[in-house]
């Protein structure tokens, strides 16, 4: 039987940092309000001309180096993004070309903030089927391009960035080693579209549009949805809040993260938090947090790591893996 094992990870953040104080100069907000309501202190913003594929390629290069894998050993690229360079071709195809890869195939996956968890689940299916050997799974976003910078209820929440992992299908004869993706659980419910959406697109307005959100409504649904799919992961594997080593949630909002961990009984010291410095980078937030927790030595080989996300759609999902 084949398991999808994480071989390496990487990340990229644009150089420019926008603090809460910077935002308070252009909209009626304050550092206090933003920190209290969200835990966000700053976010990174892509430079003019810096595209989602540029961020993705930088993160992917770091992940390939960390995995000691040559680009041409990659035969599957999944880029989770809601902010593609162009309507088409897929940003993943640009990433493939940018990395000099001409084998296998590349596609984008759109599940907004849940994109990375969806992408891990999808890549895992190709690998465990034995159809592909090594996948680059990337979350990359330039949400700054989708924001209405005059709307204080949304522009303070998001940031730009990218993160990537290399997943490899590894034969695991017997039960001795349980490394790799253990279980994934994906959900969506399109009835919630109006609570979090972009008011533009090729077939509706013909414009790019801006993020629109009923913040309270999103918050109200988030914790229940998140904890449901995590309970599914625990039920499928027999693992628990006690047995996991690290909880790496989508970084939307500190209050959602804390409420979810508390409801599940996950100890605060097991929770990886980057939202204070990155803001909500949508599909990029989990792989950015993974890369940080790997680089600083928290996540070690053999650790049991729980990923979770919820976002526009609504979409939501969990992935449990042993590093
Ligand atoms: N600065 C100052 N005041 C603000 C700001 C701001 N940036 N934004 C809103 N306000 C005001 C509102 O206008 C309102 O004023 P009023 O009472 O005079 O009408 C007041 O603050 C309270 O607004 P609420 O929207 O009720 O504030 P709430 O406590 O719900 O916090 C927030 C808003 C932070 C968006 C919260 O609802 C939330 O975190 N929701 C989850 C949404 C989320 O995380 N979305 C990310 C994308 S989805 C995802 O990734 C899961």
From TrEMBL:
Residue span(s) of domain Beta-ketoacyl-[acyl-carrier-protein] synthase III C-terminal: 236-323
Any single Pfam family the record assigns to this protein: ACP_syn_III
Compartments, record wording: Cytoplasm
Domain Beta-ketoacyl-[acyl-carrier-protein] synthase III N-terminal: 107-190
Keyword Cytoplasm: yes
Catalytic residues as annotated in Swiss-Prot or TrEMBL: 113, 250, 280
Class in the EC hierarchy, top level: transferase
InterPro entries (UniProt xref): ACP_syn_III_C (IPR013747), ACP_syn_III_N (IPR013751), FabH (IPR004655), Thiolase-like (IPR016039)
One annotated Gene Ontology cellular component of this protein: cytoplasm
CDD domains: KAS_III
EC annotation from Swiss-Prot or TrEMBL: 2.3.1.180
GO annotation terms (biological process): fatty acid biosynthetic process
Keyword Cytoplasm part of the UniProt annotation: yes
Main localization of the protein described in the UniProt heading: cytoplasm
Entry similarity comment: Belongs to the thiolase-like superfamily. FabH family.
Subunit structure: Homodimer.
Domain note: The last Arg residue of the ACP-binding site is essential for the weak association between ACP/AcpP and FabH.
Name of the protein this chain belongs to: Beta-ketoacyl-[acyl-carrier-protein] synthase III
Gene: fabH
